[in-house]
Fold this sequence. Notes:
Blueprint: H1 2-29, H2 35-46, H3 55-67, H4 71-81, H5 89-105, H6 109-122, H7 136-142, E1 145-168, E2 187-188, E3 193-203, E4 208-227, E5 231-255, E6 261-288, E7 293-301, E8 309-323, E9 326-337, H8 351-356, E10 363-385
Helix pairs in contact: 1-2, 3-4, 3-5, 4-5, 5-6
Amino acid sequence: MMKGIKHIVLFVLLILAGLKGFAQDVVMSDTGKSTEALIRHAAFKINPHLVYVNFKDAIANATELYNNGEYDTCIVLVQHSLRGWGSKMYQREALFELLVQCYLEKDDLPDADKAMVRLLHNDPHYETNDDGSNTEDFNNLANKYEVFPGFSIGARNTLQVTNYRSTTVYTDPNTHNPAINYSAPYLNTYKYYTMYYGWLEYAISKHWSIDMEGIRYNLAYNRTLLNTSNYYEGYSELMLAYKVPFYARRYFHFMNLSGHTSNFLAYLSGGIAIEHISTAIASAEYYDFSNNIINNVQNVSVLNMRTPNVLEYLLGGGFGYEIKGVRLFLDLRYYGGLSSFTNPAARMDNPQMLNTAFYIDNGAKFNQFEGGASIAFTLHYKVKKKKE
């Protein structure tokens, strides 16, 4: 065992001795450069792993190579260093800047484009410097690209108000009580409903995105079909629904006084929503006070009298502010019902409601208005060339 270790140590020492000798030979052959720079240069050419062990050294040495006009060696050093682990974003940024500038000096525009894309992916909020640290060609190339959120997740907190309206009025075919008003309105039980839900966004371009949300919430309404000194007819219902909106967003970015894109933005949206009603529990009461008749139907499932999947259109808009990878919005939205949530064809399929409480459903839709706030977190950015 000890003998094997000695052989390894001896082997390493021989390599280092050969490395030093090679570097000294190079120094002797070119006295126009500093000894230290040439030793590093020669050592890198033999084995980069023996010299560049951290990003701080890599940046310093790559900068020196760039300043000396050794662009090919600088490119090799930068590419090798970027394969390492443990670097910080600003360190990778410095290396990418050198890589872009080397390719520009070599008039290698395709590779300069690729390096610029990598630079902007490394820091989506990168800004060029006008202090002379970057060349004019570098700044011009950087300004040809735009960076925008590619894939984001978010959460919403909204207040929702629902309005119901009858589209078709149906009456009791048996005419149990002609005084019952089957055109009585559907009244929202909740003054407003608070919801929290998540959403996903995929950007097509800087200005357009496709969004999807998942919402679980309750709907509740009541109806008073008859209310006199002799009679009373009332109905109430609670539904559990799952809504999935699909829509497109059009973003508008505001400019600041210097002519650059500011952090403020607005959007308009439009699309459709599919609403699945999974539970519908209803109660109905009919009172004939003069004849002391009380007919009650309590907590009965009327799901078979509901349309399982309701279609809606949606229109919305909002105003927001972006801080790095986080966007904050104030949102407004309107849902318009396209199909009836009641199933008129099944309006008489519940004998209890029909024969005990004398209740008949109408064809009915609901419209909804939402206002609230949302937050989005960008998971992935896209980098694209601007259209010229």
